[in-house]
Amino acid sequence: MSLVGPIQLPHLSVLRLGHRRERDKRITSHLGLTARAFGADEVLLAGEVDSSALETWNSVSARFGGKFTSRHEDKPLSWLRQFAKDAGDGEPGVIVHLTMYGEPWREAIPKISTDRPTVVIVGGTKVPGEVYRLANHNISVGNQPHSEVAALAIFLESWVGPIDDENRFSGGEIKVIPNAEGKRVINLEEE
Q1: Angle, CA of 142, 119 and 125, to the nearest 5°
Q2: Which CATH number do you get for residue 151?
Q3: Residues ≥6 apart with Cβ < 8 Å to 83
Q4: Residue 4 falls within a domain, yes or no?
Q5: pTM value?
Q6: Which DSSP string do the residues of 126-145 spell out, in sequence order?
Q7: Pairing, β 174-176 against β 185-187
Q8: How many domains does the chain divide into?
Q9: In which domain, by residue range, is 157 found?
Q10: pLDDT at position 1, please?
Q11: Where would I find the beta strands (DSSP E) of the chain?
């Protein structure tokens, strides 16, 4: 259940810090898919260049619809410093850092502005101390080691709220129809 209710965010990015191609390929792939499914507009991949993660995210968006984008960010700290000053419209963006050392998510979510472009940072390797200082909100979904994919899903579902799949994911090749008794998929290119 959303703590805030359905909101309309100007632009929501997820920044995956410290990606290591061989060690993190599955978890990073799932992180981007979760970002897409739970309301993000884009995922930025920082760390080792990994065309397979970008291809996976782009392929899913083409097949299932939506305007989700992805790209590699060579200089994530520089990008964050700029975003903290100017999110593209002359005003600062909102930086949310998911960390097990942060403020409890249930307490933090109502304090997060929903009227500015936002980036949610999810670390892979050791996160530089500057990220904690740049963030407007350092938030924990739990204070024990856990999956960053789970943390992102819980945070986005609680902050963004339910996603209107019909409108958000239009323009795809296939559509899954919810069904309690089996699989129902429509190939929209054949219709």
Answers
A1: 55
A2: 3.40.1280.10
A3: 92, 93, 95, 117, 119
A4: no
A5: 0.90
A6: PPPHHHHHH-SEEEES-SS-
A7: antiparallel
A8: 1
A9: 12-187
A10: 46
A11: 12-19, 42-47, 69-72, 94-104, 118-122, 137-140, 174-176, 185-187
Q: Which residues pair with 14 in a beta bridge?
A: 43, 120
Residue 7: inside a domain: no
Both structure tokens of 56 = 């996976």
Alpha-carbon span 80 to 74, nearest angstrom: 12
Residues 89-147 have pLDDT tens digits of: 899 999 999 999 999 999 999 999 999 999 999 987 789 999 999 999 999 998 888 88
Whole-number pLDDT of residue 96: 98
Q: What is the mean pLDDT of residues 9-18?
A: 91
Residues 173, 188: contact at Cβ < 8 Å?
yes
Asked whether the beta carbons of 159 and 3 are under 8 A apart, the reply is yes
In a 13 Å sphere around the CA of 126, the CA atoms on its Cβ side amount to 2
Place of tokens 């963030």: 135
Higher local confidence (pLDDT), 108 or 173: 108
What are the structure tokens assigned to 107, written together?
């307490």
